[in-house]
Amino acid sequence: MLRYATLSLSLPDGVREPTFDLFDDSPAVSTTATRYLGPTENGRHVGLSDVCGDLAVARDLLESDDDVLQYNVAGTDGRGVVYAHHRSVGPIKELLDILYRHDIVLEWPIDHRGRERDSAVQFTIVGTDEGIHRATTEIPDVVDVTVERVGGVESKAEAEPTLTDPQAALLDLAVEKGYYEVPRRTTQRALADHLDVAPGTVGDRLQRIERRVMTAYADRGDDW
Question: Domain HVO-0513-like N-terminal spans what residues (predicted)?
């Protein structure tokens, strides 16, 4: 049977994964999603990520990181895209190898859950029962993985649009504070201050929430 599993992945203190945690120590810039990550030659990886915040700081951090071999940052107004080649120094290489070895499909993008959560990233994989079982049992002990949801692909296609924990928390807060009322009773900056995140992070997450919900609504048509 073809199944899907949504997983949350985090790394313990002291274990570094440059493709995911490069900006974690900076309050000025953060990664919101990884659009793609894949191997290149000599065990290296190339990635494409969405970032928000001070793009000049992002460039400085990329430039000063010895594990970043090549990079390019594009964007304006506090939102951008980072294209970068990394050395495979973290556990991500082993994780990707496990997925490829068992013919597991990784759905993009990978959502970054933010500094206010213990889990670093959340992603969904699709494969056979046997393939997913074998892949999850081979995940190295250094990686903390939590299974958030699992089910048949048919049930996934029919399910209501789901949000990550940070997205759900933000949506609840936005509704509670009157962000969607007319006229609005709060701002993105006020929501960001309440959650102790950058305003750009709130703006990006609200866009992702609205896109996910409205896309599901449009796909359902008269069924809603």
Answer: 18-151
